[in-house]
């Protein structure tokens, strides 16, 4: 019997929260019902995760789910002895409307301390999961690209990762930063993230579906991202806090204008 193919996906740190104890981190590891572009060994395509995809896995319990930094790998996709050490243990993992929410208790180790500091400073901008592809919907074509919906996924491990891979990478939604921007509600933050996805997705330049804004995906046979070449320039992982503040101010101004001048 062949081993199931694995999938690795990451999302920006949407609504990240580090508890007052400094060692309990709440963050999403995946988003549901949001189409995002994927580029791997099988080409460029779009993908969406069904909000019920993890239900069976979570029903089996979370005791065997690991917590690793960058899937235990270096930036170039090679095994890392340091990053293969567990960062902590999952306290709770649950499927919410927005995505797969994880609550993690970090260990009192030098590696965990270092990662927590990177999270607080905003140097780590994503959380990622790795799991088996159990069931996917038949691949469909949309706007000349392949789109696939993941119906059931396993969950082998998750944890913080240096770079998000989906279209929402332009938003750095770390609560410690947004709080300094004159506070923003969870609903407003979610709307701002959706707007960034719309602007930065292929649909914005006419290659996606004009009605839904969705962009195209492929049924990956072995969903592992290609490692960047050693001489490649660092990846731009998102806007600075100053740019985020400007975007947030503009977004609020547009909303206020719409409220003052309803159609």
Q: What's the gyration radius in Å?
A: 18 Å
Largest sheet: 8 strands, mixed
- What's the total number of strands? 12
- Report mean pLDDT, rounded to a whole number: 74
Structure description:
The protein is built from five helices and twelve strands. The protein is α+β, with helices and mostly antiparallel strands. It is globular. The chain starts with 5 loop residues before the first strand and ends with a helix. Mean pLDDT is 74; it is low at 167-182 and 196-241.
Summarize this entry quickly.
With 263 residues, the protein is an alpha+beta fold. The chain has five helices and twelve strands.
Features:
263 residues; alpha+beta; 8-stranded mixed beta sheet; single chain
């Amino acid at each position: 019997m062949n081993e199931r193919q694995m999938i690795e996906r990451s999302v920006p740190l949407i609504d990240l929260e580090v508890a007052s104890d400094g060692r309990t981190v709440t963050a999403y590891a995946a988003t549901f019902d949001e189409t995002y572009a994927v580029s791997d060994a099988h080409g460029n395509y779009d993908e969406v995760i069904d909000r019920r995809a993890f239900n069976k896995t979570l029903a089996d319990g979370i005791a065997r789910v690991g917590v690793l930094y960058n899937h235990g790998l270096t930036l170039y996709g090679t095994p890392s002895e340091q990053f293969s050490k567990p960062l902590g243990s999952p306290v709770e993992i649950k499927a919410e409307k927005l995505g797969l929410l994880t609550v993690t208790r970090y260990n009192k180790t030098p590696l965990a301390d270092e990662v927590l500091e990177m999270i607080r400073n905003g140097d780590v901008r994503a959380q990622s999961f790795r799991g088996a592809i159990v069931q996917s919907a038949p691949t469909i074509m949309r706007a000349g690209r392949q789109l696939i919906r993941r119906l059931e996924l396993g969950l082998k491990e998750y944890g913080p990762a240096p770079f998000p891979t989906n279209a929402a990478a332009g938003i750095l939604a770390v609560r410690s930063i947004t709080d300094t921007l004159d506070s923003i509600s969870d609903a407003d933050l979610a709307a701002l993230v959706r707007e960034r996805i719309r602007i930065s997705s292929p649909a914005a330049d006419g290659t996606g579906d004009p009605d839904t804004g969705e962009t195209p995906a492929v049924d990956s046979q072995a969903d592992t991202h290609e490692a960047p070449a050693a001489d490649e320039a660092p990846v731009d992982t998102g806007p600075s806090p100053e740019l985020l503040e400007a975007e947030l101010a503009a977004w609020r101004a547009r909303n206020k204008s719409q409220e003052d001048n309803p159609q």
